[in-house]
Amino acid sequence: MFRRLPDIAGDRVSFTIDGRPAEARSGDSVAAALLANGVAACRNTPVSGAARGPYCMMGVCFDCLVTIDGTGNRQGCQVRVAPGMAVETQDGKREAGR
Amino acid sequence: MAKRMGRSGGARPKDRTTLAGAGKKMRDCPKASGVQDEDPVGRLKRNERDSPRDEQAVEFLGAKTGVGTMTEPKRGGEFDIAVVGGGLVGTAVAWGLARTGAKVAVLDEGDVAVRPSRGNFALVWLQGKGMGMPEYAGWTRASTDSWAGFAEMLLEQTGVDVAFRRPGGFMPVLSQAELETRANAMMRLHNQPEMVRYPYEVLDRAALLKEMPFIGPEVVGGTYCPLDGHCNSLRLLRALHTGLERSGVAYRPNHRVERVEPRDGGFRLTTAAGEIRAGKVVLAAGHDSARLAPMVGLEAPVRPQRGHVIVTEKTAPFLHHPTGYVRQTDEGGVMIGDSFEEAGFDTTLQPGVSSAIAERAIRFFPLLAKLNVVRSWAALRVLSPDGYPIYEQSATAPGAFVVTCHSGVTLAANHALTLAPMIAAGGLSDAFKVFSARRFHVPQAA
């Protein structure tokens, strides 16, 4: 679905999506890295269960919420992907304490 | 984490506020009071469910008055009854009046109205209520007992589920001394003559842990009342308004009532959008009833008392019982409340108060610390001098009633199913004398 522009450089960064190895470029936001890895839907909404994915990419829409390194409801577009980072998609509501 | 504010839209990393962060920053700010009207609490015993006074609660349900048709001739104008106020109290009464077949108008202010109905904590609560006025405990118990049926009726009529649950409510405490105080207060409450008893328990930490394994290390125990519950009060307001529409009630927004005058055996109400005539008038205007009541020989000496509420993002259900200060809504958000401030009509959010209630909530339930706050606000309780309701018909202008209370959610079932039929039928029973504003007068003999 999404492809990188040919002139984009940056070091490769290894991280995981739901435990599966994935690769991004240094400087990618988590939301961009998810899209680049073909994960268009990263969560289900807490009330109706509808699928949601990164949309505005600038911190406004809150649709790209994911669990990052164990913390739920992080805005994927506002966090840079880091080596070894564990990104998890969210099914429904975040759990309190997580 | 990100503190989402409606207007600012995006949350930048520097805006991030977790509950823990808010609590730490503001530790020296004014404390939220740990006390509320629902908190006097009890000793290490359980009351019998069947006490001799239980029938009083049933009596309040108004079996005698029931729901009938308006038989009185329409006097003085286009409506049988005009209800002033479109909040939870006014709409619950109007909804009940409409069920009797009366032709009802609800005169409301606009969106700028001071509206606790949109800012409340949504408890349907009995625990601790009635110190100094045991009849209030009976009245409250009757309403909580009627609530499930009331919610059912609203659902059937409007399709709106107000999410009423009655799993029992906890009041956790942070010190042994506080537990003693609550236990003693609960015992004093139940030792009052005329008290309608209800079951409660005083729990130690081990007992509390069984129900809520996630309590903080400082929680020493708490009290529990199996009759406490909660609902979604925004949906309650919507259900009542929808119900009014379906039953043909004339809802008139932007009709702030300037004047009420007895006229031709009924009442003339001068509003911001013209004149309305009605045979009877019910003042359920919350804070504004203080201004309106004297126009028809009544009194409603109410004052605003501010309370802050914080709500977090929606989280998976974990808190299965409401508490007096923290509850999880049907959709998953965690509401934190229970501050008490005398600040007139100022609804400006005080960060120090928000922080204090956030910090206290985290001491009860440390797992809240990581949650994102999505909204916070301040609302104004409608309080009479003793905190109890005023229900009264005017002696000098019969047909004019005042209905005002702090607990518009808890008492909604009674207002709709018990009080409204009495108003439609012409008067309040003797059981309501205790709720007259005359109680605020210094007795002549004293």
From TrEMBL, chain A:
Domain of life: Bacteria
Positions of the 2Fe-2S ferredoxin-type domain: 11-93
Keyword terms: Oxidoreductase
GO molecular function, one term: oxidoreductase activity
InterPro entries according to UniProt: 2Fe-2S-bd_N (IPR042204), 2Fe-2S_ferredoxin-like_sf (IPR036010), 2Fe-2S_ferredoxin-type (IPR001041)
Name the record gives this protein: (2Fe-2S)-binding protein
Organism in which the protein naturally occurs: Azospirillum doebereinerae
